Amino acid sequence: MSESQTPNSISQEPINILFSPSSIAKKDVWDIDLIQILDLLKKILEKTGKKDLKVAGMAALASSQIYRMKVESIFALQRAAMEKKSMHQRTDVDIELIDIPYRHESTYPVSL
Questions:
Q1: Does 109 fall in a domain?
Q2: What three-state secondary structure class fits 87?
Q3: Nearest-CA neighbor of 63 among 97, 98, 91, 38?
Q4: Strand (E) or helix (H) holding 47
Q5: CA distance 10 to 16
Q6: How many Cβ atoms from other residues are within 10 Å of residue 63's Cβ?
Q7: Per-10-residue mean pLDDT for the chain, 112 residues long?
Q8: 77, burial (CB in 10 Å: exposed 0-12, middle 13-18, buried 19+)
Q9: How far apart (Å, rounded) are the C-alpha atoms in residues 33 and 31?
Q10: Looking at the domain assignment, is residue 101 inside a domain?
Q11: For the chain, how many structural domains are there in total?
């Protein structure tokens, strides 16, 4: 996005996606470039001179929700791939149990 196309307000695309959670569900989360959107938001806030923690907090919450949706889609793909993998391809490995040394330490003073 060039300097002439930079939105002047947080209510314009693409920044408004951070402030309307319902629009996140309508879009493919992989098409959302959070780094670019957060940089644009930072430029707008610096240009206006308004340092509002409420706006920053809402942007942080929305971006974390978008990242969460991306991670959940990765896990769903992984789960689907594991279900397709047949049981014959999986190998079970027997691991020996390791004896853990045990030493009793008193939690209170002991006199001998």
A1: no
A2: coil
A3: 38
A4: helix 34-48
A5: 6
A6: 19
A7: 61 80 82 90 86 87 91 91 71 83 78 70
A8: exposed
A9: 6
A10: no
A11: 1
- Determine the Cα–Cα distance for residues 89 and 24; give it in Å rounded to an integer: 39
Cβ atoms of 1 and 40 closer than 8 Å: yes
* Domain containing residue 30: 3-83
**Residue 29 domain-assigned (yes or no):** yes
Place of tokens 């959670």: 21
In a domain, 10, yes or no: yes
C-alpha–C-alpha distance, residues 20 and 10, integer Å: 11
Please tell me the predicted confidence (pLDDT) of residue 6: 65
Is residue 10 within 8 A of residue 44, CB to CB? The reply is: yes
> How crowded is residue 43: how many other Cβ atoms within 10 Å of its Cβ?
14
Total residue length of the chain: 112
Alpha helices in the chain, H assignment, sequence order: 21-26, 34-48, 53-84
Whether 30 and 70 have beta carbons less than 8 Å apart is answered as: yes
Give the Cα separation of 112 and 103 in Å (integer): 18
